[in-house]
Design goal:
Low-confidence stretches: none
Largest sheet: 3 strands, parallel
Mean pLDDT: 95
Number of helices: 13
Distance between the termini: 31 Å
Structural class: mainly alpha
Order of helices and strands: EHEHHEHHHHEHEHHHHH
Bound molecules: tryptophan
Strand order of the largest sheet: 1-2-3
Length: about 325
Amino acid sequence: MNEKKTILSGIKPSGDLTLGSYIGALKNWVELSDQYDCYYMMADMHAITVRQNPAELRRRTLAQLAQYIACGLDPQKNTIFIQSHVPAHAELSWVLACYTMFGELSRMTQFKDKSAKNADNINAGLFTYPVLMAADILIYQADLVPVGEDQKQHVELTRDIAQRFNGVYGDVFKMPEPFIPKTGARIMSLQEPQNKMSKSEQDSGGCVCIMDKPEDIMRAFKRAVTDCETCVRFDPAAKPGVSNLMQIYSVCTGRSFDAIESEFAGRGYGDFKLAVGEAVVETMRPIREEAERLLKDKAYLESVYADGAKRASYVAGRTVSKVYKKVGFVPKSAL
Ligand code: TRP
């Protein structure tokens, strides 16, 4: 009997993984992988809700896998897979769509934001995105879903869908909880510290990627926006830029905010920004090097995602069979 609780999370390969993905997601995923039975995926099906270049999507999906492993996710301990390799997600998504209201989906803030940003491509996939996400979560009977603040509404909708379905058919789905990490949950843009560091806005200089070269990382930190006070002090409301840099520095060095304030007392922002840049370079270096090495080993990566898809499909298939039976589909013949 497996007593460990189950975790599912994913990142869509719509952009290269950033320092924000590392601090806000991957680093926490690694910490959770001892205590929980973890499923971590590359959400490529979610990525195509926005138009993607096929070759780039393929490249980023594999690069993302290499970076998951390089960050410390052990493919033996965790089930790491590519979403499109487990067709049961799409199957469950269809059924769940029939238990999700048009009005509920219309109220999703991410849908409203993304439709505003992609006014020329407000496709049905963008609208039903949260249903596929509900399928991702419910199909593994996940207890916890580590997500950023921006995805909390989707996990809440997942609960509503599960509750509605369970209300009709009995206890089919486990009720998942969003799990929002306390520290470093939101790494902000280095250029616009009011906004989240975003992998879809990589040209602005506000974003640092895990695979970036040291000189590019240093340049981004040297140019980071601060304020005119010249005092390293943690105050996210009044000093969003400096506070964000402190947050990053704290994660990379393990130092507390108090220790950082004393370290830079009486020193200018120039020194501080250099120190943060260097700390990030040293934190990313082993990850980048290991990811580069893994990317050359296509056979190994293939064995990881093949094994992950096999394990995930087994669990996911069981949920789909149960759901199909509940809604009244004729069971497939064993012949
Ligand atoms: N929507 C998530 C994001 O943009 C990615 C995602 C897809 C996800 N399916 C998921 C996250 C299931 C958690 C659980 O970040």
